[in-house]
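Hey, resending since the last one bounced:
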Amino acid sequence: VQLVESGGGSVQAGGSLRLSCAAAGITVTGKCMGWFRQAPGKEREGVAAIDPRYGRTFYADSVKGRFTISEDSATHTIILLMDRLKPEDTAIYYCAAGSGANRDNWSKLSLYPYWGQGTQVTVS
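The structure tokens again:
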């Protein structure tokens, strides 16, 4: 299983970025796909997750209304569209694949056995 993130970069506060996660070796439709982030000196935290099979999405309170997670059904990639970015959004963003997620546990790292290498997002 391989997860590859792309789309990170540097942007000014208020700007937007679009992250993509391409998966090989798994069918994303049958998994819960999550985006997590880790800032320097902080623990990794859940940002958003999607269960494509049921069309369910989950978001951290800190990003609700600004970030949107979706599946590109044509390419089976997971997209995280980030709008109105803030300096506190600066972190390495990771894509993860797991199962069994619901609205109460989707952000638990232990649900996700597969992780990408991460992509840096810097907001200044």
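The radius of gyration is 13 Å.

Sorry for the duplicate.
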